[in-house]
Amino acid sequence: MKRKRLFWIVVPIGICLVSSLVYLKAQKGQAAETAVVGKGEIKQYVEDTATAKSSSKQTIYIEGSGKVNGIKVDIGDRVKKGDILLTIDEEGLELKLKEANAKIDAAKAQLQGSENLNNANKIEISQTVVDEAKVKYEAAARNLNSAKALYNSGSISKQELNNAEDEYKTTELALKSASFTLEEVKEGTPDYVKSQYSSQLQQAVIAKDAVTREIQKQKVISTVDGVVLEKLVEENSQSTAGTAAFVIGDVKALQLEANILSDDVYKVKIGNEVVISGKPIGDSVIKGKVVEIAPEARTITSSLGVNQKRVAVTIEIVGDIGVIKPGYDLDIKIITESKKETLVIPDSAVFDYKGTASVFVADNGKAALRKIKKGLESEKTVEVVEGLKLGDRILVKPDNNITEGMKIK
Questions:
Q1: Where is this chain's protein located in or outside the cell (predicted)?
Q2: Do domains 46-55+251-337 and 57-89+218-249 have the same CATH topology?
């Protein structure tokens, strides 16, 4: 009975003490950081990363074929138009060139001595030349028809089709020349032998020119001034005509390419201002603007292995590119909307109360709950379109101890 009485005496006293302390604290006031609502500028943006790429670049292709035996440049090297980028083995073509020169010499010798030949063999020799020329012409015609079909199906390159057409024209010219010579012989034309060997000389010269062009194709030449951005072939590899060898770009003409989430890209518009930063450029901040938005989204796998729908957005750098180089990954903020001279408050002042954005206002030294309507939101500030007015004093970082009506210091 004594313990029960003691309990009923102590508990009311404790409650009174706690209530007294709360009352005294409330009278004394809760310390809180406050700020006056003012006007300022706020920017809303979409944040992501982007990669720097040359907006002026060209792929250089191999025209010849064979073993790559000399790559003269590497990624990052600066080149000029006309510089040799790589060479391909020419040994087989050099042998063909020697053979062509030998045929030219033989044709010249035959032409010079043609007047001393036995006239009894003139018709027979001319007929043999015509027959050989006809066989070559018919073979070249079949080869050209086959090449056209292969080209239309995408099995051979344009260069290979051109080679077949050159061969056809050469044999056609040879057949016409041989036939003309034969007719002259039959009619007793005294210059028939000279015409025959003149035609052979012409054919030999054409063959030499063709080999010379093939040798020239064994060197890959830069067609532009710039920097080697990509090297697509390796030393000692086998190459064919049409193989991409290098990508050369102008490092002064740079753009950024960002892949924006499809859920955010609807906010982005052509002409939006972009703020560019990141570790590769240190403390520098560079400006840009959106110049292109891809018409469709594509699936891209994130670094965490998540498939995401993203849309490519191209950003042009405004002014000096600074130290940006092709391949740099940079942080971007695309400013999708901005307002000046509007009411803004720190985002730390806003909290959710019963599903509504709210703040605490210091009203006559006491905390007063105020519901607000938010406008634009940036990284650290929020626009207030309803619920506050210029000059109101708000609690910047209200904690759970703040209650409505509490005195605020």
A1: Cell envelope
A2: no
Lowest mean pLDDT segment, chosen from 106-120, 227-241, 295-309? 106-120
Contact criterion met (CB below 8 Å) for 82 and 267: no
Joined together, the tokens standing for residue 279 give 């570790």
Burial class (CB in 10 A: 0-12, 13-18, 19+), 181: buried
Q: Classify residue 401 by its DSSP letter.
A: T
Using CB atoms within 10 Å of the CB of residue 325, give its burial: 0 to 12 exposed, 13 to 18 middle, 19+ buried: middle
Q: Which tens digit of pLDDT belongs to each residue from 167-214?
A: 999 999 999 988 888 787 666 545 555 666 677 777 878 888 887 888
CATH 2.40.50.100 matches 57-89+218-249: yes
Domain 46-55+251-337, classified CATH 2.40.30.170, yes or no = yes
Q: Which residue has the higher pLDDT, 343 or 156?
A: 343
Q: Look up residue 40 and give its two tokens.
A: 């300022």
**Are 161 and 148 in contact, with CB atoms under 8 Å apart?**
yes
* HSE of 59, CA atoms in CB hemisphere, 13 A: 9
Domain boundaries, the chain: 46-55+251-337, 57-89+218-249, 90-217
pLDDT at 322: 77
